[in-house]
């Protein structure tokens, strides 16, 4: 599997620069505080060396007390600077991650889909894990600079004792970083591939959860499990590869740091033995050699985290910079208008042409389910205008000339698999809390029995995806939401497939009554809904082949009778 084309997104470096610029104040404060922390840590062995040096020359209680006071100041500086520095950086990191999560989620929830080759599960992974790893750059840069401060202070202190010690630290640090920078590139590419595979596995899970009930229905759950297992295994193998690369990187960094520390210690011992440095300077050098391993370790690990942040930022750029799949217009349709499909070719639709007049209740009997689904997607503006031939008009205006927001307010398409959200019955029916038709919608969809079953009524809690509701209850809840919206034009796609025949008959009559005078189109094979409609359009092989009332078609069209009679 390969990751999507990186050229379509804005460079990840731009996202990282935005994160740093937006948090420049916190980064600056964190850098100063963490620099103080590292300087204090470095000053500790230097102070010990000076104390030893002066104690051997001046053995007085005053000198000892001054030395203890100096150590106390250093320890206090180290403690407070670390505490407040990490607080500033972690707050900025968390806040920045939240901003990117919201931004990516907003892109995924825009009414016009973006032209990016990612599934919803992959976008979810980008909005969570990749957003978090991208925001880490806010913390990584100050830690990188503060580690550099420690190395520079140690090199200067050792250089003042003997130039060879300072040069050894500088040359050793440059050599270590040169080796590790090469290895960090491998980590970046491996991490990018791992993130893509994990996202693909997440997308597969999302798809399986969405289709779990149908899979159980026809016994396809085992095949689906094997499909997910294959994708998950690929992600596992890539994760092992990344862990192996990280392990080699960490081991190499630790070994090189240890070699440098040992070289500094041995060189200092050799210089002390030859009388070129004092005992105090030897104590300082040995202390710094031991201490310098920690900032060197942090300094050498930072390129790895930078590459990981860059890989995540590149993936976020795929979503954030992807162009919309369609360019919506700015017009608004007239109120209470008609609906017209003129010569449309798309998917299973071949030259489809029909018109629903304002206030009319029309049913479409699609002999091929795919044609019905394509028609619903087309009317719901889920298909970019450039992806189909022909014209779809609402109130005499082409859909492509209308703004998506205005179209959604005027024309509502309720899919057969409408999502149910965690909350309550009321919030699922009227998410905005502005509908004045909630009681009527509940009654028309025959959701009254569900409301009556629970003491809380419409405030009864609903789990995510309606897990505590039956299939028929979820479908009626979705229908109630569509009816409560009271849009000028309503399109329903198979709204009663999960209810019994008696309930279906009552719902059909209720829809016709509640929507009287409002434009309504129902894509269905339900005899009850077909009979309740003013007229029926027969959709066969992607085109309208017959048009009449349900009862006349039953009496005159044998194919229609076989297709819809139950």
TrEMBL record:
Localization: Cell membrane
InterPro entries with a match to the protein in the record: ABC1_TM_dom, ABC1_TM_sf, ABC_transporter-like_ATP-bd, ABC_transporter-like_CS, P-loop_NTPase, Type_1_exporter
Pfam families registered for this protein in UniProt: ABC_membrane, ABC_tran
Key words, A-Z: ATP-binding, Membrane, Nucleotide-binding, Transmembrane, Transmembrane helix
Transmembrane stretches, start-end: 31-52, 64-82, 140-159, 165-183, 254-273
Protein name per its UniProtKB record: ABC transporter ATP-binding protein/permease
Main location: membrane
Membrane topology category: Multi-pass membrane protein
Limits of the ABC transporter domain: 334-566
The keyword Membrane is assigned to this record: yes
Example of a GO MF term: ATP binding
Domain ABC transmembrane type-1: 30-302
Keyword match Heme: no
Domain of life per record: Bacteria
């Amino acid at each position: 599997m390969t990751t999507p084309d990186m050229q379509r997104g804005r460079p990840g470096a731009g996202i990282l620069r935005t994160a740093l610029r937006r948090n420049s104040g916190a980064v600056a404060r964190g850098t100063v505080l963490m620099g103080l922390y590292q300087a204090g840590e470095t000053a500790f062995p230097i102070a010990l060396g000076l104390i030893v040096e002066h104690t051997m020359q001046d053995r007085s209680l005053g000198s000892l007390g001054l030395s203890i006071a100096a150590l106390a100041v250093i320890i206090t500086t180290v403690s407070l600077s670390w505490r407040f520095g990490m607080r500033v950086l972690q707050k900025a990191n968390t806040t920045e991650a939240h901003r990117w999560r919201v931004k990516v989620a907003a892109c995924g929830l825009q009414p016009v889909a973006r032209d990016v080759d990612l599934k919803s599960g992959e976008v979810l992974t980008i909005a969570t894990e990749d957003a978090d790893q991208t925001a880490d750059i806010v913390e990584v840069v100050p830690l990188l600079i503060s580690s550099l401060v420690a190395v520079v202070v140690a090199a200067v202190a050792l250089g003042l004792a003997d130039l060879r010690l300072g040069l050894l630290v500088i040359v050793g640090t440059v050599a270590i970083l040169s080796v590790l920078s090469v290895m960090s590139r491998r980590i970046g590419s491996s991490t990018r591939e791992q993130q893509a595979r994990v996202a693909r596995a997440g997308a597969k899970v999302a798809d399986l959860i969405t289709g779990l009930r149908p899979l159980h229905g026809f016994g396809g759950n085992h095949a689906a499990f094997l499909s997910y297992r294959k994708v998950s295994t690929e992600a596992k193998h890539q994760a092992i590869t990344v862990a192996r690369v990280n392990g080699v990187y960490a081991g190499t960094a630790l070994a090189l740091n240890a070699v440098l520390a040992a070289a500094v210690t041995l060189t200092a011992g050799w210089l002390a033995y030859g009388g070129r440095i004092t005992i105090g300077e030897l104590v300082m050098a040995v202390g710094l050699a031991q201490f310098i391993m920690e900032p060197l370790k942090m300094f050498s690990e930072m390129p790895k985290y930078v590459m990981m942040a860059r890989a995540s930022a590149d993936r976020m750029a795929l979503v954030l910079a992807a162009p919309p799949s369609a360019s919506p217009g700015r017009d608004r349709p007239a109120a209470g208008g008609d609906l017209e499909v003129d010569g449309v070719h798309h998917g299973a639709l071949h030259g489809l042409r029909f018109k629903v007049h304002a206030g009319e209740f029309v049913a479409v009997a699609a002999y091929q389910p795919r044609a019905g689904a394509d028609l619903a997607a087309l009317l719901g503006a889920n298909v970019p205008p450039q992806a189909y031939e022909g014209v779809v008009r609402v109130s005499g205006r082409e859909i492509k000339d209308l703004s998506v927001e205005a179209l959604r307010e005027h024309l509502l398409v309720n899919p057969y698999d409408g999502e149910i959200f965690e909350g309550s019955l009321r919030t699922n029916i009227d998410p905005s809390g502005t509908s004045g038709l909630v009681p009527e919608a509940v009654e028309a969809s025959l959701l009254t029995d569900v409301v009556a079953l629970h003491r809380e009524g419409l405030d009864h809690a609903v789990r995510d995806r309606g897990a505590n509701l039956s299939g028929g209850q979820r479908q009626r809840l979705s229908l109630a939401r569509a009816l409560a919206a009271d849009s000028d034009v309503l399109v329903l796609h198979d709204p009663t497939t999960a209810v019994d025949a008696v309930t279906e008959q009552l719902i059909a009559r209720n829809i016709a009554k509640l929507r009287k005078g409002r434009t309504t189109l129902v894509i269905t094979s339900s005899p009850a809904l077909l009979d309740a409609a003013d007229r029926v359009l027969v959709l066969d092989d992607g085109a309208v082949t017959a048009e009449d009332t349900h009862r006349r078609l039953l009496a005159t069209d044998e194919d229609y009778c076989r297709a819809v009679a139950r």
